[in-house]
């Protein structure tokens, strides 16, 4: 890359793995995300269309785009696709969520996804297959990272409870 002879793609992936974030989108939706390892992530959704949903060990594709800029992409059993770009130096996220109609359309049922997905994967596949999927509802938003910490790779304690089971003030932490 011009102007940065020390940067090579993926050179900082190891430092990003294990990072735990709390961030709030411009539309008010509040999320929590953890880079479990180079291939999986965990997350909780605290506010928004599917607030209350949480997932662990979600397969993802993680790449480093530039120094302190990382992108995670995945496809959920619900049919939802997610792309997150984290700029850790400037403390913001840009997220794009591609919701199928059955979740976010005018006759959608987002409430069907509000659970610990890992225990209901077969249900998610059934809902996804029943559809409808297209046209996808695409939501792209910027978010401010309000809390960021390094918790190490494969730490089962980072995202281990449902959003409603967290202690008071948990989401109010900032650094």
UniProtKB/TrEMBL annotation:
Lineage of producing organism: Bacteria, Pseudomonadati, Pseudomonadota, Alphaproteobacteria, Acetobacterales
InterPro entries: Calycin, PA_de_COase
CDD domains: PAD
PANTHER family membership: PHENOLIC ACID DECARBOXYLASE PADC
Protein name: Phenolic acid decarboxylase padC
GO molecular function: carboxy-lyase activity
Pfam families attached to this UniProt entry: PA_decarbox
């Amino acid at each position: 890359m011009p102007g940065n002879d020390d940067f090579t793609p993926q050179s900082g992936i190891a430092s990003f793995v294990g990072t735990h974030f709390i961030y709030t989108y411009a539309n008010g939706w509040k999320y929590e995300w953890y880079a479990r390892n180079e291939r999986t992530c965990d997350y909780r959704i605290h506010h928004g269309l599917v607030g209350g949903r949480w997932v662990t060990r979600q397969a993802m594709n993680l790449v480093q785009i530039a120094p302190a800029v990382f992108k995670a992409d995945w496809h959920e059993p619900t049919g939802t696709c997610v792309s997150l770009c984290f700029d850790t130096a400037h403390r913001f996220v840009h997220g794009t969520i591609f919701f199928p109609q059955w979740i976010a359309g005018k006759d959608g049922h987002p409430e069907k996804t509000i659970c610990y997905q890992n225990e209901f994967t077969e249900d998610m596949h059934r809902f996804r297959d029943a559809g409808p999927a297209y046209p996808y509802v695409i939501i792209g938003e910027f978010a401010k990272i309000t809390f960021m910490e390094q918790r190490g790779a494969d730490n089962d304690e980072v995202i281990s409870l449902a959003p409603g089971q967290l202690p008071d003030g948990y989401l109010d932490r900032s650094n």
